[in-house]
Amino acid sequence: MGKKARKVERKAKKKARKVRRESKPRLCPKCHQPITGIYTKWVLNHQKKRFEPYLYACHKVKQGNKWINKWCYIGRKPKR
Prior knowledge:
This protein is an alpha+beta fold. It has one helix at residues 3-17, and strands at residues 37-45, 48-63, 66-73. Strands 1-2-3 form a 3-stranded antiparallel β-sheet, covered by helices on one side.
């Protein structure tokens, strides 16, 4: 990933995280749990390059003795 792309992604993540202060936590559109993390994906459509959030860490689940993030996919799952 080039420098420019990293910068754009950082901005996109920041924008995705931004919520009005003193407001409720942002909820996952799928399972409506508060979002704790966001993964973005580079999207190219109609000459519009941008990062779109496609994966939300939205709830914690206990696995053994530690809590792990559970993820919700929004849109298509990325090709591995």
